[in-house]
Fold this sequence. Notes:
Layout lengths: L25 H6 L5 H8 L1 H9 L10 E6 L2 E6 L2 E2 L1 H14 L3 E6 L5 E5 H17 L7 E5 L4 H13 L2 E4 L6 H11 L3 E5 L1 E4 L2 E4 L1 H9 L6 E5 L12 E3 H4 L12 E2 L3 E7 L7 E6 L1 H14 L8 E4 L6 H13 L3 E5 L10 H9 L3 E4 L1 H10 L2 H4 L8 E5 L5 H11 L6 E4 L33 E4 L11 E6 L9 E2 L3 H9 L10 E5 L5 E6 L4 E3 L2 E3 L1 H9 L4 E11 L3 E10 L8 H15 L7 E4 L13 H8 L15 H8 L5
Helix pairs in contact: 2-3, 4-5, 4-6, 4-11, 5-6, 7-8, 10-11, 13-15, 17-18
Bound molecules: ligand 6R9.
Ligand 6R9 binds next to helix 11, strand 20 and strand 25.
Amino acid sequence: MADSTPPSQETLSNLLHETRSFPPPPELAAEANVKAEAYERAAEDRLGFWEEQARRLQWEHPWDTVLDWDPPYAKWFVGGKLNASVNCVDRHVANGLGERVAYHWEGEPGDTRSITYAELKDMVSQAANAMTGLGVGKGDRVAIYMPMIPETVVAMLACARIGAVHMVVFGGFSVDALGQRLDDSRAKLVVTADGGYRRGKASALKPAVDAAVADRPAVENVLVVRRTGQDVEWTDRDVWWHDAVESQSTEHTPEAHDAEDPLYIMYTSGTTAKPKGILHTTGGYLTQAAYTHWAVFDLKAETDVYWCAADIGWVTGHSYIVYGPLANAATTVLYEGTPDTPHRGRFWEIIQKYGVTIAYMAPTAIRTFMKWGDDIPAEFDLSSLRVIGSVGEPINPEAYIWYRENIGGNRTPVVDTWWQTETGAIMVSPLPGVTSGKPGAAMRALPGIVADVVDEAGRSVPDGDGGFIVIREPWPAMLRGIWGDPQRYEDTYWSRFEGLYFPGDGAKKDEDGDLWLLGRVDDVMLVSGHNISTTEVESALVSHPRVAEAAVVGAADKVTGQAIVGFVILRDGGEEVPEELVKELRNHVGTSLGPIAKPARLLAVPELPKTRSGKIMRRLLRDIAEERAVGDTSTLTDSSIMDVIAKQLPSAR
Ligand code: 6R9
């Protein structure tokens, strides 16, 4: 590196050389929903392409203009009117699909419900009537703090139906996190449950809502579903769902909303700052959610049984448990609980039981299943699967191969889907009937999406180089802003590169021009003037047979600027990395990626700090590596994890 260049100006080093590639199975390719021509069609006439996709939906009034682009503010399908809940439910019933199962719901204790589209329509209509009765109207915000039960979907669709804006908060978030989101959105109604089942126990939800609404008079009512039957405190503003909703008429006449009317707000926690309320609107969002769900999973709605094992409180649940699948009249599995209750084969048992054909889950889950062992999925019949997907983080090549072999029977394509809360829907992914999958690569921007990798100056990098992923053209499901804070929207996404949307992720183009996502740029390590991606070093560590999971961070170092510190979960559960293994792992990384990427220190940990969507919170590990007090842990799945790690590592206090 030239001395005159400040180190941070150099773009990401391209270290990994992965050469495996799996072509689409010929039968799937022959029958695929999307063929290779779609890319050309969309490139020739991008707006025309998206208009075609918008016609998947039922519009009460057609749009006048496809796109009104006043950078960085986009309006899609301007003048169009539609109702998202009608698109997800009523029109399927009207089209004779009322008897089709919308959801096979599986409660953690083993109770089940199958809900048809006709039943869902009745439930949504009742909830819409109840919400109207509680004084909720168009534009009002409704907070939803729920377990994974059918009423959660019903509450979302009821909001969409009456034009209220839903704001789902993860059922595991703390009182403070919920309170902050209630304040920012000024929600009028909270929908919750007494509790839900997790890890074999009834875990309470209502007490957190009670505490959060106690000093928040803006919340007028709390609508409570009885799920566990546990005792709850009760106040005047509380209303039971079974009283308020189930007594309502199943008739509700929906109103058509503007394509650009707000549909929902979803908060992203960010790293340190106040959470951002990402705003999504109706027409463009539903168009891209429906198209991508149909295209990326090759959905055949009449025959497929689809399962996305995400939480509805994550954007993945919004787009790929609720809006995408319902808009496509799919049959979806909805599971309440954790993968290890009552046994570690629960996911595979669910796939076998319902004959799931398409499964979608996060790399963090896949790595956990790898750790638990191949013999567990081997006990179940997974032959119904035909496409399997991954989302949330870069999937390590080893995890990809394990998933493909042990879950996909070495037969099904793996779709590694890259997107964000902000993008609303999948942006970069293989198409299962078109693309040869490479382990660890999200491959290509979908038809109609214009993505690129640029250097620090915003110049497109040649194939074989790394840099920053950007989106060059607006897309239908893009966020319309940050709730109440337009300046922050411009600063966060549009200020780094003139005229380009910057998602905040590092990426590279390989020699074929395929895209590899390399993690958040905030996490990139700077070692002796080289920017090194955490993803690549972690993938190299995980490819060693003794390592189950790994997270690496750059810690300040006098000599190299930053030194790589690796936190590893050992397969044998060891509490320390023995001296000879440290050497072996350093050499293993050196051989895979080059000597520059060798970790300076390796620490064994029992668990890694993760968000509820399974992302490793590297900033907390950086605090440990740099021996400072650990920062904000309020969005961790399990906030006690940092104490566990701290106990084990003497430097972690
Ligand atoms: C859908 C979702 C967004 C961030 C994103 C990126 C990471 C998600 C990924 C991936 C590599 C993938 N991410 N999918 N990185 N490969 N297939 O996760 O939304 O929770 O907002 O997170 O997640 O870093 O920028 P969200």
